[in-house]
Inverse folding.
């Protein structure tokens, strides 16, 4: 695992401190002196790796330290240190090493084990479907019927009605929300008292989920539509934040009072939060995860959704059940090949049909090439494309070229006009702002969010020259877009929420945020939680958002942040047009660099599945009197 890190970074100092503490503890426990250098290096590496999004490291990462030692001997040396335990005898050991040579911080091994156990329990639980369910599915999904082939939206809903765990993966515009609305209608038809909860990792994603479900539920009978959840929660709010950091009010000992949980933007779930969420879901409840397996993984450790959604295999029995429930010919129910086999067969559906842009459109084709790692094909397409939905700006300089900045300024022209002509129509201003967004790979540096926001803000103020602009001594001016950076539950503002500064009737500048279906609320700028200007945002922050057009600004040099998933995520935020600015060299390296996060989650699920099968077999033998 090769990393380039500044030695003086906070992460580096933290890792060194952890390593030295562990070495002192090992000495006190009588560890052999020749093990201590290895332990120091391993502790430092696992701390840094966890900070970079990995859940663990492998012995192969450490063999360069002891090139003449076999992996099995290396594992034994760790176990002899007195501070590294095996899963079977973990105790209070700060580090855990499994039989495959994965080395974990103790709590991350525990998160992985807990999540895997809960996943397998949910995946193994089935529901009996009502006799009239087929007719209901036919009615609800009549408008989404495919011309030929299987209707995967209908099949996904049917699967979720039979299973306690369903994972639906698809990009923007593939019909995930439509599927969920119809699925929830079926659940409510079966049981009007069904307690359904909607959740997402961020406040912005939760709000968008609620709005999307409202917009797509108009075809439902009024008596069912009114039973749909009236609110969507952030996962932290759902679980109940407590004063003690990292702990929640709801957990395995105090589960949520729900019958079904739908989690949107599940690709943003990190391992720790996923484990705590699944702990808090009661055993009888259904769990439906929605996300995009090809999107960026969570900021924190783990790539949970990507691993859970890796295997869309359906067994013959499952295919037969789905065929009977949906009226689909079994021969048409042909799921794609798995990325990696997992124990979650019969629990995963991939949506590949895009209803927003065709596969042969500019954005659709480019997204497919990026996902497939076809760097040369993607670059050739960008270089030669006549499709108006994609544009390439060759710009590999340290500072963005004039053409790149002009493209950014032009992107905000509609918004500038809306602010200039603003009287009282706030919705028109928000709609104009959502027309275009600059997405950056980095926060800092000359091609990062902070600098682009500074340049865009200066240009906007100078061009607008609004009479209520107090001047450069103030950060506040009409039309300034702001993004909230920290949840404020009192103000009901959440990380990622976007507001726009506009004058009220008295001419005072206020930050307006959408509220409800058509309303807005004004908040004095000084009352806002931590925030920043939002002409540009990171690709990470853009997850769950969509814009008519985006400009994706790549850094001047490839680094570990620029991954295939980042490129795909940024590109697919665009509904109609995507502009990419960067060098072909950086673009090629980015497409060729899929995110790799070390984890043992699939292995933990295999172990949990084996244990679950053993318990089932024992119960069957007991029942049979064996």
């Amino acid at each position: 695992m090769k990393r380039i890190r500044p030695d003086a970074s906070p992460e580096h100092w933290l890792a060194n401190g952890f390593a030295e503490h562990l070495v002192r503890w090992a000495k006190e426990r009588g560890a052999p002196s020749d093990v201590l250098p290895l332990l120091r290096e391993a502790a430092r590496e696992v701390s840094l790796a966890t900070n970079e999004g990995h859940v663990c490291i492998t012995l192969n990462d450490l063999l360069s330290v002891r090139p003449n030692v076999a992996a099995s001997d290396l594992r034994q040396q760790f176990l002899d240190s007195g501070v590294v335990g095996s899963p079977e005898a973990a105790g209070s050991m700060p580090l855990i090493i499994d039989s495959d040579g994965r080395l974990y911080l103790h709590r991350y091994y525990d998160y992985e084990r807990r999540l895997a156990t809960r996943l397998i329990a949910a995946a193994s639980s089935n529901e009996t479907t009502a006799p009239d369910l087929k007719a209901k599915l036919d009615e609800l999904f009549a408008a989404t019927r495919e011309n030929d082939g299987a209707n995967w939206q209908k099949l996904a809903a049917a699967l979720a009605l039979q299973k306690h765990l369903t994972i639906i993966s698809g990009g923007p515009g593939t019909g995930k929300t439509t599927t969920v609305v119809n699925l929830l209608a079926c659940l409510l038809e079966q049981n009007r008292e069904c307690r359904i909860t909607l959740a997402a990792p961020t406040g912005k994603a939760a709000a968008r989920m609620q709005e999307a479900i409202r917009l797509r539920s108009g075809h439902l009978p009024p008596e069912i539509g009114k039973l749909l959840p009236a609110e969507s929660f952030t996962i932290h709010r759902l679980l109940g934040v407590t004063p003690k950091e990292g702990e929640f009010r709801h957990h395995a000992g105090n589960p949520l009072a729900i019958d079904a949980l739908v989690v949107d933007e599940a690709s943003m779930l990190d391992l720790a939060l996923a484990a705590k969420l699944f702990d808090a879901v009661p055993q009888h409840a259904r769990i439906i995860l929605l996300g995009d397996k090809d999107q960026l993984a969570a900021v924190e450790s783990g790539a949970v959704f990507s691993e859970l959604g890796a295997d869309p295999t359906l067994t013959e029995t499952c295919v037969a059940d789905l065929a009977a429930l949906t009226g689909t010919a079994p021969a048409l129910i042909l799921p794609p090949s798995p990325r990696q086999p997992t124990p979650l067969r019969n629990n995963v559906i991939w949506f590949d049909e895009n209803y927003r842009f065709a596969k042969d459109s500019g954005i659709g084709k480019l997204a497919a090439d990026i996902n497939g790692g076809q760097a040369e094909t993607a670059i050739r397409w960008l270089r030669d494309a006549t499709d108006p939905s994609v544009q390439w700006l060759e710009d590999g300089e340290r500072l963005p070229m004039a053409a790149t900045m002009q493209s950014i300024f032009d992107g905000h022209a509609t918004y500038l006009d809306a602010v200039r002509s603003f009287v009282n129509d706030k919705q028109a201003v928000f709609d104009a702002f959502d027309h275009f967004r600059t997405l950056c790979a980095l926060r800092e540096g000359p091609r990062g969010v902070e600098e682009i926001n500074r340049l865009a803000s200066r240009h906007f103020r100078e061009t607008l020259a609004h009479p209520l602009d107090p001047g450069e001594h103030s950060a506040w001016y009409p039309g300034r877009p702001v993004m909230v950076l920290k949840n404020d539950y009192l103000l009901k503002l959440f990380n990622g929420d976007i507001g726009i500064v506009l004058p009220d009737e008295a001419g005072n500048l206020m930050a307006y945020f959408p509220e409800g279906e058509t309303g807005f609320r004004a908040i004095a700028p000084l009352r806002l939680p931590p925030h920043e200007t939002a002409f540009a945002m990171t690709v990470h922050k853009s997850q769950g958002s969509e814009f008519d057009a985006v400009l994706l600004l790549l850094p001047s040099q490839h680094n570990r942040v620029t991954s295939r998933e980042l490129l795909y995520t940024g590109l697919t935020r665009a509904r109609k047009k995507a502009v990419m600015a960067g060098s072909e060299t950086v673009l090629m390296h980015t497409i060729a660099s899929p995110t790799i996060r070390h984890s043992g989650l699939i292995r933990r699920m295999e172990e949990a599945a084996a244990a679950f099968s053993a318990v089932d077999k024992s119960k069957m033998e007991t029942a049979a009197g064996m």
